[in-house]
């Protein structure tokens, strides 16, 4: 069920929250967050989608667009924080059916073509045994299409620290570690940083909540991921919107410090 919801509601499989920050909306599906960013220009109905979750997120995104009185024809661009399967989701379909260009850092090109061939420090097989609470989470992801994400050949690239000429004009924050080309997006006017999986408030592999880097089951280099917390912190953003988990409204400095304290898993 897709509905408007407040952040203090019980975690549900699907939730659409309008205006987590001004002109920015959050669609959560199967424990993954996508965001819809409206243009700040008067009279411009264009939107940017940030991350695309799973194949089954597609109709939910159409309904989310309708809820803010937009349509697929208003989607000017799709930005990927990184190209893991649970963020690449419906990107290829949107590119083919909506004509929406898909952007990511150039280091994500190979992963976008092969979204299951990603570097990770630790075996994924042991995590459900060590963290049984993750089993229903991973099951919901599979139900949302996690095992049938199509790769993407035609990926347009951006560089670290670019300000993108797409609705909302986010600034790229290069934050590698989770993947080699991972990037966050900073919205200075709203004092928001969309951290993707460079910093999350829920780890699907362990079920742990609170600011943290993602476990070694899905992170290429945890040392680099820890170092990238510095780049996120430099945004001085008040609101942190992660790729997994609830928004954090106590500032990026506090979130980064909590993630450092949480360490590696």
Low-confidence stretches: 1-12
Percentage of residues in helical conformation: 10-25%
Q: Rg from C-alpha positions?
A: 17 Å
Structural class by secondary-structure content: alpha/beta
Residue share in β-strands: 15-25%
Number of helices: 8
The spatial strand order of the largest sheet comes to 1-2-3-4-5-6-7
Biggest sheet layout: 7 strands, mixed
Mean pLDDT: 93
Q: Which architecture name does CATH use?
A: 4-Layer Sandwich
CATH topology: Metallo-beta-lactamase, Chain A
| Helix-strand string | EEEEHEHHEHHHEEEEEEHEH
The geometry reads as globular
Number of strands: 13
- Oligomeric state of the chains in view: single chain
CATH homologous group name: Ribonuclease Z/Hydroxyacylglutathione hydrolase-like
CATH class: Alpha Beta
Distance between the termini: 33 Å
How many domain units?
Answer: 1
What does this structure look like?
With 265 residues, this protein is α/β, with parallel strands linked by helices. The chain has a single domain (14-262), classed as Metallo-beta-lactamase, Chain A, CATH 3.60.15. It has helices at residues 58-67, 85-88, 91-98, 109-113, 127-130, 134-143, 222-233, 252-262, and strands at residues 14-21, 24-29, 32-38, 47-50, 75-79, 102-105, 156-158, 171-174, 183-187, 192-196, 200-202, 209-212, 239-242. A 7-stranded mixed beta sheet has the order 1-2-3-4-5-6-7. β9 and β10 (192-196) form a beta hairpin. α7 runs antiparallel to α8 (252-262). The longest helix has 12 residues, at 222-233. Mean pLDDT is 93; it is low at 1-12.
């Amino acid at each position: 069920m897709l509905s408007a919801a407040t952040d203090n509601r019980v975690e549900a499989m699907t939730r659409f929250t309008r205006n987590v920050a001004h002109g920015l909306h959050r669609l959560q599906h199967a424990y993954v967050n996508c965001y819809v960013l409206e243009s700040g220009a008067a009279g411009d109905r264009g939107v940017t989608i940030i991350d695309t979750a799973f194949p089954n997120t597609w109709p939910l995104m159409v309904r989310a667009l309708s809820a803010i009185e937009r349509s697929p024809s208003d989607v000017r661009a799709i930005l990927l924080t990184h190209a893991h399967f649970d963020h690449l989701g419906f990107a290829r379909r949107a590119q083919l059916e909506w004509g929406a260009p898909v952007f990511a850092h150039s280091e994500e090109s190979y992963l976008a073509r092969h979204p299951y061939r990603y570097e990770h420090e630790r075996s994924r097989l042991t995590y459900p045994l060590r963290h049984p609470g993750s089993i229903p989470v991973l099951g919901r992801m599979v139900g949302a299409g996690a095992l049938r994400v199509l790769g993407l050949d035609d990926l347009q690239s951006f560089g670290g620290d670019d300000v993108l000429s797409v609705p909302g004009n986010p600034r790229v924050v290069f934050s590698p570690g989770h993947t080699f080309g991972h990037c966050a997006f900073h919205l200075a006017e709203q004092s928001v940083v969309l951290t993707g999986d460079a910093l999350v408030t829920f780890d699907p592999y362990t079920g742990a909540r609170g600011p943290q880097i993602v476990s070694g089951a899905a992170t290429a280099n945890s040392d680099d991921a820890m170092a990238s917390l510095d780049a996120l912190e430099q945004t001085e953003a008040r609101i942190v919107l992660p790729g997994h988990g609830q928004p954090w409204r106590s500032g990026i400095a506090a979130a980064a410090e909590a993630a450092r304290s949480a360490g590696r898993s």
